[in-house]
Amino acid sequence: MRFTFVAHRPGKIKSLLKEHDISKGLLAKIKFKGGNIWVNDIPQNAVYVVDIGDVISIDIPDELPYDKLAPIKHPLRIVSEDDHFLVLDKPSGFASIPSVNHSNTMANFVKGYVMAKGYPNRQVHIVTRLDRDTTGLMLFAKHGYAHARLDKQLQKKTIEKRYYALVAGDGQLETKGEIIAPIARDVDSIITRRVHHSGKYAHTAYELIASYGNVHLVDIRLHTGRTHQIRVHFAHIGFPLLGDDLYGGRMDLGIKRQALHCHTLSFYDPFKKEQVTHELGLTNDFDKVIMALEHYK
Predict the structure, then answer these.
(1) Cα dihedral across residues 221, 226, 228, 233: positive or negative
(2) Which residue has the higher pLDDT, 188 or 141?
């Protein structure tokens, strides 16, 4: 895959490429695994000094698949796809990546898709993950360079994900709120988390969209990305998610998984050089719960 840049100042190629998130590791891959560097269509090396206006092109070698990740044929709900990114609508019931307990995952499905399509880059690069029973928008990069560029945005917290959740609890839920409370592992579990002073900083913002008695639809924005953050934070303020038996959510309203759905994903596409936003509506199980609650108001 070829990428082209125009030098805006004199300097070594490697220094100029670093400004475009070309790492030392990627330069080594280009040098030793079949890639090339060109300046004005003449082959050069990474320490060659270019001048203003020189055209630098890099050929990044294709990525071989990881043998340990098994490809699985499974239909994907594709929201958007181009040469660099794949955005999916993830259903509930599937983990993002394989683990001791999960082998039938979104990563397996994407590898199956990539292999079936015969794409030259066959490694799976997950940019944003979702819990097993959380639905909605999930972002994959289609090659390592695209992943590296999005990693920079993750570090700067400029990739925005917003969620819908159905929560229930006694008392009044404010129309807007900020939940800032550190999250740590639970003392007697490797799975569950809790709010505790020993944990890592976590920040969740929300806005109340609608109320159905003591059940509320909220729109949530994450400022940090801790494990189970939304679930832990809303349980902490006394409004656990419907269907979330792990954190005390109600199980009697027709939804048997945590009522959490990633409805908006926004990031800067460094190849198109524009902000890209994808949106999804509510899932069928959300709609059914809301319709039943409205009926019995």
Answers:
(1) negative
(2) 141
| DSSP SS3 for 189 | coil
Whole-number pLDDT of residue 297: 59
CA gap 136, 235 in Å, rounded: 21
**Displacement of CA 261 from its chain's centroid (Å):** 13
Of the residues 89, 131, 151, 269, which is catalytic?
131
The encoded tokens of residue 151 equal: 């990693």
Helix or strand (DSSP H, E) at 5: strand 2-6
Residue 141 CA to residue 128 CA, distance in Å, equals 10
Residue 67 appears among annotated catalytic residues: no
Per-residue tokens: 86: 């794949």
Contact (Cβ atoms closer than 8 angstroms) between residue 239 and residue 211: no
- In the structure encoding, which two tokens stand for residue 23, read together? 């790492």
- H/E segment holding residue 195: strand 193-195
Please give the Cα distance from 107 to 94 (Å, whole number). 10
Please give the model's pTM, rounded to 2 decimal places: 0.91
